[in-house]
Amino acid sequence: MTDLTEADRGHIRIIWKQLFADPEANGRAVVLRLFKDYPETKKYFKTFKNISTEEEMQKSAQIKRHGKAVMNRLNDLIENLEDWDAACDIMTHLAERHVHVHKVGVHNFRIIFNVILTILTETLGEGFKPEIREAWEKLFNIIYNYLENSYKKIEAAS
Questions:
Q1: DSSP structure string for 74-139
Q2: CB half-sphere exposure, 107, CA atoms < 13 A
Q3: pTM for this structure?
Q4: What is the tens place of the pLDDT at every residue in 59-94?
Q5: Buried-most residue among 6, 117, 150, 154 (CB within 10 A)?
Q6: CA distance 97 to 38
């Protein structure tokens, strides 16, 4: 997070405060949009395979739970924007779980980050000013690059 300026961190926190006010609903929105725009990602979720309609997805406790988990991990990272060591621990654990437990390729993080940016653009409209979007893009690039390097280390060690 060392590449983020104070202004970047401020932009991220302002938007995040709004998003994390309702992590379940906003997390669900991210997961639903992920499945709508990238239906191939659904294959990574054994419990979601039999949920096919949008109505079923809206009501799914599993989707709600996973959406909240996504929001909680992002919250952990955003709370540690100034603490690179803590952020690295969080991202390393995230990479290890997604490699060993979930068997999810790192490229899927890029996909979910794009989904979040799309939702922010649509929801905030002109309030998602270019400098705010750039701060979020920078954050997601930092996270993605770290995760990608972690995946390479984990896979090389296996």
A1: HHHHHHTTT-HHHHHHHHHHHHHIIIIIS---THHHHHHHHHHHHHHHHHHGGGS-HHHHHHHHHH
A2: 3
A3: 0.93
A4: 888 889 999 999 999 999 999 999 999 999 999 999
A5: 150
A6: 22
Residue 124 token pair: 């905030």
Question: Rounded distance, CA 84 to CA 3, Å?
Answer: 10
Let me know: does 120 contact 136? Beta carbons within 8 Å: yes
Contacts 24+ apart (CB under 8 A), 80-83: 80/1, 81/1, 81/4, 81/9, 81/12, 81/13, 82/1, 82/9, 83/1
Encoded amino acid at 51, one letter: I
What are the Cα distances from residue 6, in Å, to 1, 32, 112?
Answer: 11, 32, 25
Residue type for position 134: E
Span 51-61, pLDDT tens digits: 778 888 888 88
